[in-house]
Amino acid sequence: MRRFLPLLAAASLLLVLMAATAPVAHGYNITKILAQHPEFSTFNHYLSITHLANDINRRLTITVLAVDNAGMADVLSRHYSLLTIRNVLALHVLTDYYGAKKLHQLTKGSTLASSIFQSSGHAPGTTGYINISDHRAGKVSFITEDAGGASPVSFVKSIKEMPYNLSILQVNRIMSSPEAEAPVAAPPPVNLTELMAKKGCKAFADLLLAEADVLKTFEDNLDGGLTVFCPIDSAVKAFAAKYKNLTAEGKSSLLLYHGVPIYFSPQLLKSNAGVLTTLASTDGPKKNYHFSVKTDGLDITVKTHIITATVQSTVIDQDPDAIYAVNKVLEPRELFKVDLADAPAPAGSKKAHKGASSSDAAAGPDEAPSDQEASDSSAFRLAAAGRCLAASIAGLAAAVVLAV
Ligand SMILES: *[C@@H]1O[C@H](CO)[C@@H](O)[C@H](O)[C@H]1NC(C)=O
Ligand SMILES: *[C@@H]1O[C@H](CO)[C@@H](O)[C@H](O)[C@H]1NC(C)=O
Ligand SMILES: *[C@@H]1O[C@H](CO)[C@@H](O)[C@H](O)[C@H]1NC(C)=O
Ligand SMILES: *[C@@H]1O[C@H](CO)[C@@H](O)[C@H](O)[C@H]1NC(C)=O
Ligand SMILES: *[C@@H]1O[C@H](CO)[C@@H](O)[C@H](O)[C@H]1NC(C)=O
Question: What is the pTM of this model?
Answer without folding.
Answer: 0.60
